[in-house]
């Protein structure tokens, strides 16, 4: 998950906002619960919902920083998953049969946005600055392989199984997919943070030719290790590269963030419940397919990761950006599918997980393009453009199937 640069000072506007937003969101939730809201209030609630997601991720990062790795990454992943699952279940319980495929739509949207949108944006920003984006193919390739495997087990297989009608798993099949997804995710966290941590560090710079100036390619942390120090870059065109990571926060600060994190998660789920009917009515009134709700959820949940990945890419930290993108996709499947599988015990109606032919094609194309991008350990503007074109194509067809 995301790794922040040096934390803002204790009284900075960002920190104050992160502390105020969860409290304000809970108070607003109490005030608007089960009430008919005017349009202006609806806009305020939606804006507060988005701000609360950002605040939740901030406080999760503070707690993760205090706990350290590998548990820090798990805290971040669980916090984001709670938001995603909370939004999905809230909309599924209030939307009726039309939301049977919401979990599939949201998870697949997260895969496409991370593996093509965030990856493409990261490669683009780095390539514009340094001509070639460099990264470690061993770690990035392992992450991509895990994402594709998780997506196939959870989203492709249901379209071909015959034990249950339609693109859904039977009970035992869903249990297997949930256990396999969670196991693969936990195994990846262990490999990334303990066993083969060096695979997820920035690859060393190539040896310069005789007489040429050495390439500036600093070694950076993985993006999942919050306590690691960031290289101090002396590039005069980017003063922000002088950032370093803050010291480990004291226990009191971590406990405060834990309380605010809990409040933020409650507020996100509650405000999503308040806005669920409005969101669905707006999409229906606009003549858009109901599956677009899943795309909206994915975009909202992935907003903090997108901003963090772009920030690191602008500073030539491609490996961190790719770790963020692929790690987000992995958590979206590896934690969301098991949570939805458990929740399905209490949910009415079917749980449609199988992708249609067009989405399976997009996933296969993403896998092939991703492999070709990762194998060399470097990428140019062309690879960035290909990934962004895939993401744009998916988003366009999501609105115009």
Automatic annotation (TrEMBL):
Bilayer-spanning residue ranges: 12-33, 39-59, 71-95, 107-128, 140-161, 173-191, 254-272, 292-310, 322-346, 352-374, 381-399
Entry-linked InterPro entries: Alkaline_pH_Ca-Antiporter, NaCa_Exmemb
GO CC terms in record: plasma membrane
Sodium/calcium exchanger membrane region domain residues: 43-192, 257-397
PANTHER family per UniProt: SODIUM-POTASSIUM/PROTON ANTIPORTER CHAA, SODIUM-POTASSIUM_PROTON ANTIPORTER CHAA
Single GO term (MF): potassium:proton antiporter activity
Superkingdom assignment: Bacteria
Membrane topology category: Multi-pass membrane protein
Protein name, entry field: Ca2+:H+ antiporter
Start and end residues of each stretch annotated as Disordered: 210-247
This protein's UniProt keywords: Membrane, Transmembrane, Transmembrane helix
Location of the protein in the cell: Membrane
Main location class: membrane
């Amino acid at each position: 998950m995301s790794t922040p640069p040096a934390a803002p000072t204790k009284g900075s506007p960002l920190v104050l906002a992160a502390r105020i937003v969860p409290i304000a969101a809970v108070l607003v939730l109490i005030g608007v619960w089960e009430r008919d809201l005017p349009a202006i209030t609806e806009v305020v609630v939606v804006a507060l919902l988005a701000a609360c997601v950002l605040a939740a991720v901030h406080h999760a990062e503070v707690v993760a920083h205090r706990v350290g790795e590998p548990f820090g990454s798990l805290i971040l992943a669980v916090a984001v998953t709670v938001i995603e699952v909370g939004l999905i279940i809230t909309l599924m319980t209030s939307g009726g049969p039309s939301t049977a495929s919401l979990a599939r739509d949201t998870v697949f949207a997260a895969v496409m946005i991370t593996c093509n949108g965030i990856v493409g944006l990261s490669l683009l920003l780095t390539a514009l600055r340094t001509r070639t984006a460099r990264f470690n193919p061993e770690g990035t390739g392992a992450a991509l392989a895990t994402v594709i495997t998780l997506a196939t087990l959870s989203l492709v297989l249901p379209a071909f199984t015959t034990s249950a009608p339609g693109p859904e798993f039977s009970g035992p099949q869903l249990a297997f997919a949930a256990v396999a997804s969670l196991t693969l995710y936990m195994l990846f966290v262990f490999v990334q943070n303990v066993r083969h941590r060096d695979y997820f560090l920035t690859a060393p710079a190539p040896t310069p030719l005789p007489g040429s100036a050495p390439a500036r390619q600093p070694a950076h942390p993985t993006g999942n290790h919050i306590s690691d120090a960031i290289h101090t870059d002396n590039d005069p065109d980017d003063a922000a590269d002088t950032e370093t990571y803050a010291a480990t926060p004291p226990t009191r600060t971590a406990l405060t963030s834990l309380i605010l994190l809990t409040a933020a998660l409650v507020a996100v789920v509650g405000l999503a419940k308040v806005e669920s009917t409005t969101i669905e009515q707006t999409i229906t009134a606009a003549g858009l397919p109901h599956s677009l709700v899943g795309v909206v959820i994915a975009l909202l949940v992935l907003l903090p990761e997108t901003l963090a990945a772009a920030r690191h890419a602008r500073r030539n930290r491609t490996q961190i950006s790719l770790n963020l993108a692929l790690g987000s996709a992995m958590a979206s499947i590896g934690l969301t599918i098991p949570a939805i599988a458990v929740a399905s015990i209490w949910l009415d109606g079917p749980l449609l997980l199988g992708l249609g032919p067009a989405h399976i094609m997009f996933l296969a194309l993403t896998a092939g393009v991703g492999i070709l991008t990762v194998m060399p350990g470097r990428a140019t503007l062309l690879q960035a453009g290909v990934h962004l074109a895939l993401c744009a194509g998916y988003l366009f067809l999501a609105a115009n199937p």
